Amino acid sequence: MTPHSPSILFRRSRPSAHLPARLRHAVEDLKLDIANPSRGANEEQVHKAVRKSLPEGEIPPDSFVGQIIANNQSNFDAMLNNQFCKDMAAASTEEEKAKVLKGYKWYTVDFMYCENLMRYDAGRASNAPTIKDVLEGAQHVQSTYDFAQTILKTCTDDLGIPEESVFAAKKSAAVTDYGSFEVDTAQDQDWFTSKIATIPCIQGYYQIAKMLQKTSVDKDTVWYKTWALENMDWLYCESQIKFFEANKPPVVLPEMEETWNRIFRTACGHEVDFFALGENPQDL
């Protein structure tokens, strides 16, 4: 394996067209870091950071990811225990399913979330100091564009939302605020610290999906098939844990830890707000 070759970390056993935009963007961002010689550990070093495969669903408590979750457990639990996902699991009557479906349609229109990221990545690429940075920025724009197209297809084909309704949907504060937070974090923090914002998404979605697997009354629903099943891939979680183990600083100063915890808590809060969209949907 050559240093900084294209990463096989985060590679799913099967391709997916339904992963949420935030999870897709987080994964692609980490893969680009692994492939970039100027940013930390290469793929071989990431693999060596944790020499054995982790048992599915078990985050080592002494790992960076395990510790930051433990430091902010109540915030992480608030995300895991959001009401909308509980409603997804409990829906059994036609009335309950119709209510959840309406909420899921509005939650899924995070197509608009991609717009903020594409604008930011395009601006970053246009102002990049080197050709390598320009190319990386272009990769981000292309990846986010591809995600937006698959989400649009999910909205129209799987959820039956007219395309014109998707484009006409008004951006919610949750979408705008989350996108702004990610852009600001990427601009204001070093590359390692900015990636902490991805931990609630990657680790949390997996845990919520496994909860839905255990507790869903009806698994023949569009939200179970296009959200729960798609977020049950432990490989993403394991790869992220290894990524942080390979790149964490050897010495941690109190102010660094304070910043990390703040970013993690803020990201959890934005995820809570995003799931709350399903409880208060707009008509599409």
TrEMBL record:
Origin superkingdom: Eukaryota
Listed Pfam families: TENA_THI-4
Protein name as it appears in the record: Thiaminase-2/PQQC domain-containing protein
GO biological process terms on file: thiamine metabolic process
Domain (Thiaminase-2/PQQC): residue spans on this chain: 106-275
Chain coiled-coil ranges: none
